[in-house]
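G., the chain you wanted modeled:
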Amino acid sequence: MDSALTDLITDDRVVIRQRVNDWRQAITLAAEPLVSDGSVSRAYVRSMIRSVETYGPYIVLAPHTALAHARPDGEVYRQAMSLLTLSDPVTFGHEDNDPVSLVFCLAAVDSASHLAALQQFVSLVTDVTRLRLLVAARTVTELQRALRHGHGASTTSPTDTGSHRQRST
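Predicted structure as tokens:
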């Protein structure tokens, strides 16, 4: 169903159920798969953090969900997206949508090529059931299933932190 979104959020760009100290660390950890696979530079990660420092928590677009991004400015080498799920939600300072459990990171090479994925992202973040499945996912497979269809992922409570953490490499 969400082919553009799932084409961008590949298994190796998913980090599951991690703990962070603050929103800066959340953005950094969410972007790490994109740095590792050569999609973006570390300067792009710093730009995403600076954007929130400058403009506030505008990236928290829906309840419990942030979409970290910045202008490419030559620091995005290919279109990609990553996703970090947090075992303990983090506060970005958004009045309505904090705390955040899902941190998506968008690497857009231009102002248009990622629009199909963004449309699917909007559809995803307005589907409360799918968001709960993403937060509850304990494996990359469960997370990808929730991204694609919203069915078959773990039914564990989104607030259950559990002891399983997985990072796809």
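The first helix runs from residue 3 to 8.

Shout if anything looks off.
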